[in-house]
Design goal:
Layout lengths: L1 H24 L4 H24 L6 H20 L6 H20 L3 H21 L2 H95 L3 H29 L7 H16 L3 E10 L3 H22 L4 E9 L1 E8 L14 H12 L3 E7 L2 E9 L3
Parallel strand pairs: 1-2
Antiparallel strand pairs: 2-3, 3-5, 4-5
Helix pairs in contact: 1-2, 1-4, 2-3, 3-4, 4-5, 4-6, 6-7, 7-8, 7-9, 8-9, 9-10
């Protein structure tokens, strides 16, 4: 936009220069014509030099404005009494200098000070060279017209600044969205990888170790049968059955976590997990459930279901419990999950040592901004998970 502005200034000042030179030429004042032509050429040239130096040297401004001011004063004094274009040139030059300042520095204090200076200069010169009878009326017209032009420039500047800010904001948002998308994809990939590794460990710990133990027990039972030690063989078979049930329950729990298409109904999903646990282990489980006013996202409820699955899996593997109580409540913006058993318990202070399932539950609680509390003693274990505020 800067070049059309300076082209317009050059054409405007060139018009005043040509018109005044022709008018004075007719009076045979050749010396004034020559001097006036040089001043107009210098004045226009300074504009174009300013285009080249505006972003290169700040000291240029201390040279540019005094020179331009001196050229304006010189031209006005030469035109006074010799040409009718003097005051029109003064008005146009004032508006041009103020407009240029607004274009270079925007709506800043520097532009304001320069505008005040050039408007004050115009008023002083106009007062000296105009007739007192028409001074105030003519000045009012000039100020109104000039004020309208300058106000338009200020508003245009403001719109331009807002547009630039909007473009920069849009670019920043686009960059931030790209970074968020990349981070989300990376997190999803890492989460999927970690989940696969966890499930691989779970299946190894349940299927591989469980089947290996069954093989050893069955081989021992076969050896006792060959030696006609039926009571010992029967005891080993009973132990093998208990191990088989435990392995089956743990395997089903692990496979359940891998299912990608679970029931879309939250109540059904909870009931299904509890029923599968009871069928696999034979441990009775009381269920208290109320999710009629669910305002939580699928991601949050999925984390809660995974905490429930992990807690039931820990009961199966470690608790040696005879009874379990599960409470799952959602009331508007509050989610509460409680799993309590009457098993042998464990040392909570040693939770981080080998209890990767509990560590995973705490991680899920952190991701949902929830609070997870684990209490355990020789009378059983209580896991309490709560989120206050839907998300």
């Amino acid at each position: 936009m800067i070049f059309p502005f300076y082209i317009f200034l050059s054409l405007l000042m060139g018009y005043f220069g040509i018109a005044s030179v022709i008018e004075i030429w007719e009076t045979n004042q050749n010396g004034i014509v020559l001097l006036l032509s040089v001043l107009f050429l210098l004045y226009i040239s300074m504009f174009w030099l300013n285009v080249l130096w505006v972003d290169r040297n700040t000291k240029w401004w201390f040279f540019y404005y005094p020179i331009q001011t001196a050229l304006i004063l010189g031209i006005v004094f030469l035109l006074n009494g010799r040409s009718t274009t003097g005051l029109s040139f003064l008005f146009s030059a004032t508006v041009s200098m103020v407009g240029e300042a607004l274009g270079v520095w925007g709506n800043s204090r520097r532009s304001l000070f320069l505008g005040i200076f050039y408007v004050g200069l115009m008023i002083c010169i106009f007062y000296l060279f105009s007739e007192q009878a028409v001074f105030f009326s003519s000045l009012a017209g000039l100020l109104v017209n000039g004020g309208a032009i300058i106000l338009f420039m200020v508003m245009f500047n403001q719109q331009f600044i807002q547009r630039q800010k909007a473009i920069e904001l849009a670019e920043s948002l686009e960059s931030a969205n790209a970074k968020l998308a990349a981070s989300a994809a990376k997190i999803e990939s890492l989460t999927l990888q970690n989940e696969r590794q966890r499930m691989a460990r779970e299946l190894h710990d349940t299927l591989a170790q469980g089947v290996a133990g069954l093989v050893l027990q069955l081989e021992a039972g076969k050896a006792h049968l060959s030696a006609d030690r039926k009571e010992r063989a029967s005891s080993i078979v009973e132990q093998a059955l208990l191990r088989a049930r435990s392995t089956l329950a743990e395997s089903r729990a692990a496979i359940d976590d891998l299912r990608s298409a679970s029931s879309t109904n939250l109540s059904e999903s909870i009931q299904e997990k509890v029923n599968r646990f009871t069928q696999a282990t034979g441990i009775p489980c009381d269920l208290e459930i109320s999710v009629s006013e669910n305002q939580f996202s699928n991601e949050t409820t999925t984390h809660a279901l995974n905490i429930l699955s992990e807690a039931l899996a820990n009961v199966t593997r470690h608790a040696q419990a005879k009874k379990v109580h599960v409470k799952f409540l959602i009331q508007k913006e509050k989610l509460e999950l409680e799993i309590q058993d009457d098993g042998k318990g464990f040392d909570v202070s040693q939770e981080s040592s080998g209890h990767y399932g509990l560590v995973g539950m705490r991680e899920r609680a952190r991701l949902t901004n929830g609070n997870l509390n684990i209490e355990s003693n020789q009378n059983g274990t209580r896991i309490h998970f709560i989120i206050a505020g839907a998300k």
